[in-house]
Amino acid sequence: MATGGVLSPTAARLLALAITAGVSAAGCGSPSGSTPAGGTPSETAPPPEALCARVVAHWSRAVLDSDTYGDYQSMGLSNGQYDILRTVVDAARATRERQGARAADALIDRQARAGCVRWYRSGGPGEGPWS
């Protein structure tokens, strides 16, 4: 499933589906709008921009040392998330050269979150898997 700490494309897609299914199911089945554990859906499911940031940061770290970005579909990313990833990785590579790996790692988290927040603020994913 994982090689060297990086998920294979198939494993990543399965993980993304599992996360999506878990988020979709988190608020279902209770007439009061609470989850079986007693929390509200907003307490149990992270906001979509947080999930976006987590996935973008993960794949940014995975491709940071690579010569290519790979295929966004094999990573389970939308086109919008992939655009964020490319921006993050470009900045992380430049930061790593100037300031080292630790600074690049911190930059990945900050820029992935900022990019996803901006993306969702401007409408987020549209129709279709490429959005």
Write a brief structural summary.
The protein is mostly helical. The protein is built from 5 helices and 2 strands; from the N terminus they run E-E-H-H-H-H-H. The longest helix is centred in the C-terminal third of the chain and has 21 residues.
Task: List its salient traits.
single chain; 131 residues; mainly alpha; 2 domains; two-stranded antiparallel ribbon; 5 helices; 60% helix
What does this structure look like?
This protein folds into two domains: 8-45; 46-124. Helices cover 60% and strands 3% of the residues. The chain is mainly alpha-helical. It has a two-stranded antiparallel ribbon with strand order 1-2. The chain has helices at residues 9-25, 41-44, 48-63, 79-99, 101-121; strands at 2-3, 6-7.
Cα end-to-end separation: 27 Å
Spatial shape: globular
Main beta sheet, described?
A: 2 strands, antiparallel
Count of strand segments:
2
Helix-strand layout with pairing:
Layout: E1 2-3, E2 6-7, H1 9-25, H2 41-44, H3 48-63, H4 79-99, H5 101-121
Antiparallel strand pairs: 1-2
